[in-house]
Write a structure and sequence with these properties.
The chain is α/β, with parallel strands linked by helices. It is built from six helices and ten strands, in the order αββββαββαβββαααβ.
């Protein structure tokens, strides 16, 4: 066991409960104390370098502690002397991942639509976007990938409970049902916020242009 693994194991009474670890954040004159670093997302790669999931920092550290993964990309700041906070980790052993369609959720809709209002075309941070039913629920519309789109608040209010043709508004793209390629598509959209992930997801940086933070 390496010195840094011993240090992390010493920090927790139960090595299987990584959530009990209180990660010591580095302090630098340029960046100051790193706030909320334990809540950062980390890209998980299979042993084949295929991106398979996104995990909280604590789960990524757990993989490192148990010797199941190695740091591939990092923040340049330390957990402990010589040990850097990861942004990408690679599993040491290949894991077969069954292909599944994503479940319907707010997050899935926003990722599919790239955090872009499907009416005005502007991009926003997730916290200020809403979901709009193309066919309003009061008119029989259902919660589905085909009937839900990301919408900014002004556009959502403008459309209200009208049908699309009644509102005089148009959609940027007609929403489609999820398929087996949707999970990879969603991972690529997340790479807009993490430049260190992009080369593992064949990300085109031009896709992230024009994001409005709201």
């Amino acid at each position: 066991m390496q010195a840094w693994q011993s240090w992390l194991m010493h920090r927790t009474r139960n090595a299987d409960d990584i959530r009990s670890i209180r990660i010591a954040c580095s302090t630098s004159k340029k960046g100051g104390t790193m706030n909320n670093v334990a809540n950062r997302a980390v890209l998980i790669l299979n042993a084949s370098y295929e991106a398979i999931s996104i995990a909280p920092m604590r789960k990524a550290v757990k993989l490192l502690v148990k010797g199941r993964a190695d740091v591939t990309e990092h923040l340049g700041r330390e957990i402990h002397a010589g040990i850097l906070f990861p942004t990408v980790v690679k599993l040491r052993t290949y894991v077969h991942i069954p292909i599944r369609k994503p479940t319907l959720s707010r997050k899935a809709i926003l990722l599919r639509d790239r955090h872009r209002c499907q009416y005005c075309g502007q991009r926003f941070s997730p916290g200020v976007l809403t979901l709009d039913h193309i066919l309003p629920r009061c008119r029989g519309g259902r919660d589905s990938f085909e009937n839900l789109v990301a919408a900014c608040q002004p556009c959502n209010r403008k459309k209200g409970e009208k049908l699309l043709e009644e509102s005089g508004m148009t959609l940027l793209h007609r929403p489609r049902a999820s398929n087996l390629h949707t999970p990879r598509f969603m991972l690529r959209n997340l790479a807009a916020e993490e430049s260190s992930w992009q080369k593992y997801l064949y990300y085109d940086s031009s896709e992230s242009a024009g994001v409005t933070r709201g």
